[in-house]
TrEMBL record:
The keyword DNA damage does not apply. One of its GO terms (molecular function) is metal ion binding. Keywords: Iron, Metal-binding. Gene3D superfamilies: q2cbj1_9rhob like domain. This is Phytanoyl-CoA dioxygenase. Its cofactor is Fe cation. Pfam families: PhyH.
Length: 281
């Protein structure tokens, strides 16, 4: 039986036309449980109290702490998890927004999954020659406070020339309309990249006006736990705030091609090691 990521001609045609593809099922219950249990261990090991009132946590902001997170495992919290005094209003495990951005490099459980044949076979199917995982994220989408992800294209933030970013979005819990599943504009990847975020000596900015989109164009991408969504780097996608009583955990990988593609010097994520040196055959 071929790996779960081996794509058929029909699946490749759908991805080419729509800019996304849902593979369901993709990962086993054992793999999902291993990732979730390992993340629970990592969160439990964060310094500071498990109770409310701890002030030793970092907000989700595009600042120096964020920009230095590309080569390690860092923890970021929901803005709505904090009270007026700047301290958490609830336990840290119900307050954290995401963990990133190098789980796939530094943690053995996440590394094992990220380098599996199921993952690599996706890029063989897409005819990538030297794909590299450039970042990884564990997203919690906490019940009641999980922040929205505004409409965006992954190539805006993780740019190569020519563009090559592919997102892999693994559901670790059922992702539904009510708890903040992905939404996408089918075929929007064919319109090209609308804006690129630049980080240089003058600061961080977008090179063009960030466009607005009609909500009527988006379709929900509901997926069961263990399902995977493949996302083209130019696909416009988003997720709403999670106002439901259930979380929506997901593990997300972003992969770029390094053969014939150059990592942009203006990207926020700049590795001490060039991306192409991270390729493992």
């Amino acid at each position: 039986m071929p790996p779960a990521g081996s794509l058929t001609a029909e699946q490749l045609s759908f991805f080419d036309a729509n800019g996304y593809l849902v593979l369901e099922p993709f990962s086993s219950e054992e793999d999902v449980r291993a990732l979730r249990e390992r993340m629970a261990e990592l969160v439990a090991g964060i310094g500071g109290s498990n109770s409310t009132g701890s002030c030793e946590h970092h907000r989700m902001e595009m600042d120096d702490f964020y920009f230095k997170s590309g080569e390690n495992i860092s923890f970021f919290y929901e803005d709505k998890a904090f009270g007026d005094d700047g301290c958490l209003k609830q336990p840290k495990e119900l307050s954290i927004r995401l963990v990133g951005h190098a789980l796939h490099e530094h943690d053995p459980v996440f590394k094992k999954f990220s380098s599996s044949e199921n993952i690599s076979s996706i890029f063989s199917s897409l005819e990538y020659k030297r794909p590299v995982i450039i970042q990884s994220r564990y997203i919690f989408k906490q019940p009641g406070i999980g922040a929205e992800a505004i409409p965006h294209q992954d190539n805006t933030y993780l740019h190569t020339e020519p563009p090559s970013c592919i997102g892999l979005w693994l559901a670790l819990e059922d992702a539904t309309v009510s708890n903040g599943c992905l939404w996408a504009i089918p075929g929007s990847h064919k319109n090209g990249l609308k804006t690129q975020m630049i980080k240089d000596e003058s600061g961080t900015y977008f090179d063009r006006t960030v466009p607005s989109y009609d909500q009527k164009e988006f379709v929900p991408l509901e997926v069961k736990s263990g399902g995977l969504v493949i996302i083209h780097g130019d696909l416009v996608h988003k997720s709403f705030e999670n106002l439901s009583p259930t979380s929506r955990h997901a593990y997300v990988l972003h992969v770029v091609e390094t053969k014939g593609c150059e990592w942009s010097k203006g990207n926020w994520l700049q590795r001490k090691i060039a991306p192409e040196a991270l390729y493992v055959s």
